[in-house]
Amino acid sequence: MYHFVVFLVFVQCSGAIAQTGVFSPVAQLCNASVPNVLCIKKYASVLPYHFFRNISEGTSEPTFGSTSVPNDTSFALVDKADFLVFDQQRGLELLGANPSYDYVFPLAPPPGYLPQLVIDLNQNPPTLSEYLSDPPVYAPNGGTFHDGLIYWGASGGNNSIGGTEQRVGLRTLDPATNKSTTILNNYFGYYFNTVDDLFVHPNGDIWFTDPQYSWFNKLTDTPPQLESATYRFTPSTGAVHLVEDTLVQPNGIALAPNTRTVYISDSGATSGPISPFLPSLGASFNATGKRTIYAYDLSADATFLSNKRAFYLSQDQVPDGLKVAANGYV
């Protein structure tokens, strides 16, 4: 009788299993003659391992360009480019043949600063100068022009600035006379929080967001008294209507050209603690917080919102102010 002995030999492969779906390069110049415009292939949907983007819990966040992608050297260009193009068909059309941007000057006045700073874009290069209306508007925000007047959100609150007490609310400015007028400064006796951004509907109603950033940024001397919310104000009657209160920190707001869609950004990823017994402790950034733009349907009579849906998640930091172009681009 014969006996057979079978030897099983296991051989460990010397190489790792190849990653699938990788395309290279992820980033490349859209046009070799324009070194500051970078095209990102397929939205960088597959990155070669091992890639890693740091998460920050401080006041700022590492950008998409700071992502470590050591196995694709082209990605190092992302952090240096002036413009990143993900949709080449539409992006390159918007940028034109030779786009550029120039850093002109910083805009960071200290808390409580008066007068305001105004940029004159008619000059080349643009100039920065001081400006005061009569009476002055403390911490103007979200300005828009409508029917001959500038509408401002007055986002600062102080009992003795510019020679008078000012509280968060809405102001108009007549550029012909330099006269400003308060048209709203409370909600049934409560101070508003910030009045960050606004638009004026063709029917004259003013839609505005009211997050809590003035407290975090030390632009008001009282802690928030109201939840973060979005309102509709009718100047002819003085009525203020709550239209949205589901967002953590409603920020930018804009009306689509067809006047049937409203966009509101939630910058709740940048927020901070609030207590009537503590001073302002500032705000910090949390990457897992809300940083989304939402779209809403506006009713036919332009009085209420419905059908909230997420529209865009910011890839860097938080979405702030926003505008809608004539072609519908946000």
Termini Cα gap:
85 Å
Poorly predicted residue ranges:
1-13
Count of DSSP-assigned helices = 2
- Approximate shape: globular
Radius of gyration from CA coordinates? 26 Å
What share of residues is helical? under 10%
Strand order of the largest sheet: 6-7-10-11
Average pLDDT taken over every residue: 89
Q: Sketch the topology as an H/E string, one letter per element.
A: EEEHEEEEEEEEEEHEEEEEEEE
Strand content: 25-35%
Structural class: mainly beta
Structure keywords:
single chain, 330 residues, mainly beta, four-stranded antiparallel β-sheet, 2 helices, 21 strands, disordered N terminus
Task: Describe how the helices and strands are arranged.
Elements: E1 27-31, E2 34-40, E3 83-85, H1 88-95, E4 116-120, E5 127-131, E6 140-146, E7 149-154, E8 158-161, E9 164-166, E10 169-174, E11 179-184, E12 198-200, E13 206-210, H2 213-216, E14 229-234, E15 239-244, E16 250-255, E17 261-266, E18 270-271, E19 284-285, E20 292-298, E21 305-313
Account of the 3D structure:
It is globular and about 70 Å long. It is mainly beta. The protein has 2 helices and 21 strands. The chain has helices at residues 88-95, 213-216, and strands at 27-31, 34-40, 83-85, 116-120, 127-131, 140-146, 149-154, 158-161, 164-166, 169-174, 179-184, 198-200, 206-210, 229-234, 239-244, 250-255, 261-266, 270-271, 284-285, 292-298, 305-313. Strand 12 and strand 13 (206-210) form a beta hairpin. It has a 4-stranded antiparallel beta sheet with strand order 6-7-10-11, with no helix packed on it. It has a 4-stranded antiparallel beta sheet with strand order 12-13-14-15, with no helix packed on it.
